[in-house]
Amino acid sequence: MMFASGLRTAARRPALGLRTRLTLSYVVLFAVVMTSIGLTFHQALVVIFHQQTERLLDGEWNALKGFLRARETELVWAYDPEHPEEAFTVDRLRRVFLLTDAEGEVIEMSNGYASIGREPPELIRSILRSGAPATVKRTGSRGEVYMVRMGPYGAAGRTYFVAIGLPVSENERVPARMLAVYAAAAPVMLLAIAILGWYAAGRSLSPLLRVVDAARIVSGGNLSLRIEPLGTGDELDQLIETFNGMMERLEANFEQMKRFSVDASHELRTPLTAIRGQLEVALLTARTTDDFRRSIATALEDVERLGRIVQSLLQLAQAETGQLRLNLQPEMLAEIAARQTARFSPLAEKKRISLRLEAAEDCVAAVDRLQIERLLDNLLSNAVKYTQEGGAVEVRVRREGGEAVIEVADNGPGIAEHHLPHIFEKFYRVREGERTAGRGVGLGLAFVRWIALAHGGRVEVRSRVGEGTTFAVRLPLRPAAAAPAAAKAE
Ligand code: ADP
Hints:
Largest sheet: 5 strands, antiparallel
Number of helices: 12
Shape: rod-shaped
Strand content: 15-25%
Bound molecules: adenosine-5'-diphosphate
Low-confidence stretches: 1-11, 433-437, 481-490
Radius of gyration: 51 Å
CATH superfamily of the largest domain: PAS domain
């Protein structure tokens, strides 16, 4: 079973460790973010340059209208050559310039435009037909790029075709260069992110590795192992706290089990040693049949005690593993309490203990009669056994909210506070009381606790040394449909 589940874990183990996967995620995430930023910037630059060129072309187009005028039948550049600004502007306008008639016949073509080549007459005709200027991209013979504004130009009753261009090679080159620089820097940045990511992932996973290491070395011998919490309160801190909590429970259970095995072997050995002693003595010293009878009778008492211990242990084990089924029937708790109290009155009388019962008749609960009798039997036998001569024991049965409460109170020696958390454990006895009172098996209260839990209830104890002890068993009046017979009295 363990081997099989081990195999399954091994099969499901990923090829890459968590640290590597985290680092890879950082790198991939960063690469995606960097690529999108780079592309966005590139696109933004392209758009900005394009808009700027359009604005410049608008300006040039308007300036053109001011300088290109109709004189009689032809178009001429009208400006004052002596005026440096006008001369400069016209010179600039004519640098990449094409003027044709409506049929596409070239009237004027600058050298700059010559490298682009004259526009085809079909294009000219279609632009003149549309009546609106258009902006197109043209490439010169040496690879230089131009943005060209072309459109109809009406003067002296005739329509001409005009095109002016602006060199934009630089506009194309800048975004491309930016992208190249960015792409060259990317691997360096990704490497830096990978190193930082590896370091950060290692740091944040180190508490996890501490838990793994600790869990790996846990064995029966070092259950006191704890991991120091980080104090951050995050998920890893919670993991550490959960691990520590688990270890605490394991340690407590393990300790209890260890104590139980030591106690159980001790409890079984004592009557065995006694029997052996009695039989040896009988063998060596008994002469008459009466001698033998006496020895056998005492040995039998110890055999009975041994049997009781084994029987109780077996029943407790069955109860804790859910093999004992409760037979739930509506019962009047007052009546059960009265019968059990009556059973103990001769014993109480012998110790001059006043034994009183105070029971509410209306207390009916669905219980397993046999088990509740056994519960009362254990509590009453303890009370009568441990209470001094002339003391008082009281049994009370009442309703409280949705619960039935059965109390057994005495004014006996009481139980010291440090013993209280343990008295329901198997074989636990308060050592001081052992010598004066008769020896019990030490399983009575373990039974009481199991019976209360199995009925969906609980048992509480209040005690003061020198004043007395009260055990209160609280049972739900209507237990849940499926009574938890398997309740574990850990
Ligand atoms: P035991 O067989 O020894 O009575 P129990 O499990 O019934 O075992 O009780 C556990 C221990 O709790 C007892 O050894 C005793 O010291 C203490 N105890 C139980 N009931 C009382 C009581 N009414 N007054 C004082 N001590 C008690």
